[in-house]
Design a protein that fits this description.
Strand content: 15-25%
Order of helices and strands: EEEHEEHHHHHHEEHHHH
Structural class: alpha+beta
Number of helices: 11
Number of strands: 7
Distance between the termini: 40 Å
Radius of gyration: 22 Å
Largest sheet: 5 strands, mixed, barrel
Helix content: 40-55%
Shape: elongated
Number of domains: 2
Strand order of the largest sheet: 1-2-3-5-4
Length: 325
C-alpha cells in the first residue's frame, strides 16, 4: 500500500499513517478539557494534528521526536489543512523506512561548500583570511555545517540549509560591493560566514531539528562568539602574532547585532556599516525564502492565498491561475 505523504493529503481524506512527531503540546480549552496539538512531519512537509479530550496519561506514552501512527481525517480550517486525530500511538523506528522522513537539501551542498571556500579565500585582508582558513581546515565543524539547517521551523530548516543561507548572502554581498564602498567587504564577508555559525552547536539533527542543551542555554550568538574567540587564539598560535584587536571587536559585534533589534534577540544594535548591511542581507534572504517556501508548500491548491500565518501576521498571495492572467 502506497504511503500517504503530507504533501498528498487533501481535504476530507481518511488518514492512517506513521509520521514523525516533530512537536507535541498539551493545551486546555475554555472548559479546561485537554487537547493535543501535534506537528506531524515526513520528508514532504508537515501538517498540524489535533486530538480532542485527551489525558496527560494518554499523551505520556509518546513525545516529540518519536514516530507515531495516527488515525483521523484531514480537513481545511481557516484555509489551512489539518488532521483531526482519533488515535495516536508510538511506533518503533526500527520498523520504518528512514528515507520517508529525512528532510532533503534543496541545493547541491557539495557545490555550496566549494563556493563558500572560494569566496572566503578571496578575502584580501591577511588577518581576516587567516582566520577564515582556520575555520575551513576544521573538518569536523565544516562537516557539521554541511549538515545543519538555519532554523528549526522557519527559513532554511533542512539539512544544508545553513550553508545555503550563508552562500546566498555571500553572493549578494559580492554583487553589491561596488555600490557601498564605505562597507568593508572583508569584514562583511567574514561576518556573513560567522553570524549563524553557532547554529552548528545550537541545534542537532536526526529526522528533525531540535535544540541542544548548549543551544537552549546559550543560543547561537554566544556560541558563535566563543567559536570566534577559539579560532582567533589558533591564528595567534599559528602566526605567532597578536590578532588585531579592532578586527576582533568588529567581527564579534557583527555576530551579536545581526538580528537588528533588542526585541528580536540582539544584545546590541548594529553600530557599524558592516553590521547594518549584514542585518539587512540576513533578513532579506531569510524572509524571501520563508515567503517562497510557504507559498510553494501550501496544500490548498484551490485558493489564491495562503491561510493567515501568525508568525508573519498576514496571508501570502500565491497568484491567479494562468488562464485568468
Amino acid at each position: 500500500m502506497a504511503r500517504q505523504f503530507v504533501s498528498d493529503l487533501k481535504d476530507g481524506d481518511s488518514v492512517e499513517e506513521v509520521f514523525l512527531l516533530a512537536e507535541k503540546q498539551l493545551r486546555a480549552n475554555r472548559n479546561a478539557n485537554l487537547y493535543l496539538l501535534a506537528s506531524l512531519r515526513d520528508r514532504s512537509g508537515s501538517v498540524s494534528g489535533l486530538m480532542w479530550n485527551v489525558t496527560e496519561e494518554q499523551c505520556a506514552t509518546f513525545d516529540s521526536g518519536d514516530f507515531v501512527r495516527i488515525r483521523g481525517k484531514s480537513q481545511l480550517y481557516q484555509g489551512g489543512l489539518q488532521v483531526i486525530m482519533n488515535r495516536i500511538e508510538r511506533v518503533d523506528a526500527a520498523s520504518l523506512n528512514s528515507e520517508d522522513f529525512e528532510l532533503r537539501p534543496t541545493q547541491d551542498v557539495d557545490r555550496l561548500m566549494v563556493r563558500l571556500r572560494e569566496i572566503l579565500l578571496s578575502i584580501e585582508d591577511p588577518s581576516v583570511r587567516s582566520l577564515m582558513e582556520c575555520f575551513l581546515i576544521d573538518d569536523a565543524m565544516m562537516a557539521r555545517l554541511a549538515r545543519s539547517g538555519a532554523g528549526v521551523k522557519t527559513h532554511h530548516a533542512y539539512p544544508g540549509g545553513l550553508v545555503e543561507h550563508i552562500v546566498n548572502m555571500l553572493e549578494t554581498a559580492v554583487r553589491i560591493r561596488d555600490l557601498y564602498p564605505e562597507v568593508n567587504i572583508n569584514l562583511l564577508l567574514a561576518g556573513i560566514f560567522l553570524h549563524d555559525l553557532g547554529k552548528v552547536r545550537e541545534m542537532d539533527f536526526e529526522y528533525s531539528f531540535v535544540y541542544t542543551d548548549e543551544g537552549q542555554l546559550l543560543g547561537h550568538m554566544v556560541i558563535g562568539v566563543e567559536m570566534l574567540t577559539e579560532k582567533i587564539a589558533q591564528v595567534e598560535r599559528l602566526t605567532n602574532d597578536p590578532f588585531p584587536r579592532e578586527i576582533e571587536l568588529r567581527l564579534k559585534h557583527l555576530i551579536v547585532s545581526h538580528h537588528g533589534s533588542l526585541e528580536h534577540g540582539s544584545p546590541r544594535l548594529p553600530m557599524t556599516p558592516e553590521a547594518i548591511a549584514l542585518h539587512h542581507l540576513d533578513n532579506l534572504d531569510a524572509k524571501v525564502h520563508e515567503f517562497s517556501r510557504t507559498i510553494s508548500g501550501d496544500p490548498n491548491g484551490d485558493s489564491h492565498w495562503t491561510p493567515f500565518i501568525p508568525r508573519l501576521e498576514r496571508k501570502l498571495f500565491k497568484g491567479l491561475p494562468p488562464e485568468t492572467h
